[in-house]
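Supplementary Methods, section 5.1.

A reviewer requested that the exact input to the structure prediction be made available. We therefore reproduce it here, unchanged from the version used in the analyses.
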Amino acid sequence: MLKPGDKVAVLDEDLEGKVISVDGGEVEIRTTEGFVLTFPEKDLIKTDGDFPDVGIEDLSEVIKQKESFKKKKSSRIKPKERNLPPMEVDLHIHKLVPKSGGMNNFEILTLQVETAKRQLEFAMKKRIQKVVFIHGVGEGVLRAELETLFNRYENLKYYDADYQKYGLGATEVYIFQNY
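The structure derived from this sequence is encoded cell-by-cell as follows.
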C-alpha cells in the first residue's frame, strides 16, 4: 500500500515523514526532524500534505481497536493489606558481603549507597510503596548519603522509621504511585 516517497503520519504520535523503504509489514520513514524510524505499516497513514487520507470506514476501525484496549479496573486494596509491613533493606555491611576486611570506608559506603539505590528503583518498578532502609546509628555518614540519594527523586518522601521497631538507625521511604 505504501511506497518510497509517500508522505505519512504516525497514528498515536505527533510524527510525520516520508517513506524511505518498505520491507514486508515494516516501513522505514525519515521524520520531518530528520530521524530515521521504523514502524509497522498498520501504524502509518498516507497523507497528502496537511490532512491525513482517512476514510470513514478506516476511522471506525481505528476507534474499534482503541476501545478494545480499555484500562483495566483498579483493584481495591483490602484494609488488611493497607498496613502490610514495608520492604526492608538492611545496609549493614556484614549483611551485604561475606567479608569486609579488605574494604576501606569509601568502598563500604559506596557499596551501601549503590545497594540502596538499586533496591529503591526495584521498589519503584514493582510499585512497592514503603521501603525501610536500616542504616544503623554510627556517625551518620550513611544516613546523610541516603538523604542525598532520596532528594534526587521527586516522587518520594522519607522520614525516621518506627522508633519502637527500628530505633534511631532506620529511614522509611514512601513512594508516591502515579496511577
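Residues 105-125 form the longest helix (21 residues). These observations are discussed further in the main text.
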